[in-house]
Amino acid sequence: MSKVIRLPKKRRLWPELIIILVAVYLLYSFAHLGLALYQTNLQIQAYENQKAALLQENTRLRQEIQELNSDSYIEKVAREELGLVKPGERVIMSAQPGQVRPYKPPEPGHQFRD
């Protein structure tokens, strides 16, 4: 009987190489998605901070509108900036040397218009 000599089988590297390439691709994909998720979360946080600041400013502006529309503020502006007086009031103006301006009251029945 003759002995059969078997030669060692040649190893194929293709399946292992394909598995390694797929694993590297999957790791890269997950890392890329993780980075995109992180950046998106940073943007969300920035937008939430901006929203909070805008809501705070909106609240402040609404309060300012209420104050500006109040009767007491309108009267204050009318008296201080426009020089208006209520009927029957007397106006006392302090005179400064060299800058005396005579007060001319509005005509009776005169109405101020916007």
TrEMBL record:
Spans annotated as Disordered: 95-114
Keyword Membrane in annotation: yes
InterPro entries per the UniProt record, alphabetical: Cell_div_FtsB, FtsL/DivIC
Coiled coil: 37-71
GO CC terms, sorted: cell septum
One GO process term, biological-process aspect: FtsZ-dependent cytokinesis
Pfam families linked to this entry: DivIC
Keywords: Cell cycle, Cell division, Cell membrane, Coiled coil, Membrane, Transmembrane, Transmembrane helix
Transmembrane segments: none
PANTHER family on file: CELL DIVISION PROTEIN FTSB
Protein name: Cell division protein FtsB
